[in-house]
């Protein structure tokens, strides 16, 4: 019996660990909201992860991941280069203190 267990455990362990990875991805998706904005320049899709206090979006053909920072009002996320600032149903994206996406309005906001 011990020989069988010793032979089976190395085969089962990787499967069990991969299951944990899928579970973690599932939990991450549960804590992520997808927000659709229409900006003056173009549409913007933002993935808001409240657990990690981060937003992700595509700009300049690259994924930007910004972490929540200090804000006097609204919610401000930054990586030191980009800033995503939202308040209510509107948002603005800055790159090095220059507005790159302006007048972004949340589409189909939850009330």
Automatic annotation (TrEMBL):
It comes from Scandinavium lactucae. Keywords: Lipoprotein, Membrane, Palmitate, Signal. Transmembrane segments: none annotated. The keyword Signal applies. This is C-type lysozyme inhibitor. Residues 1-23 form the signal peptide. Residues 37-98 form the C-type lysozyme inhibitor domain. PROSITE patterns: PROKAR_LIPOPROTEIN (PS51257). Pfam families: MliC.
């Amino acid at each position: 019996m011990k020989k069988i267990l010793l032979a089976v455990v190395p085969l089962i362990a990787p499967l069990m660990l991969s299951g944990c990875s899928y579970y973690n991805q599932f939990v991450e998706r549960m804590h992520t909201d997808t927000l659709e904005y229409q900006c003056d320049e173009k549409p913007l899709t933002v993935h808001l992860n409240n657990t990690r206090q981060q937003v992700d979006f595509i700009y300049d053909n690259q994924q930007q991941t910004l972490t929540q920072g200090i804000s006097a009002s609204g919610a401000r996320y930054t990586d030191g280069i980009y800033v995503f600032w939202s308040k209510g149903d509107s948002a603005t994206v800055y790159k090095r203190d220059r507005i790159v996406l302006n007048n972004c309005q949340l589409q189909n906001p939850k009330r």
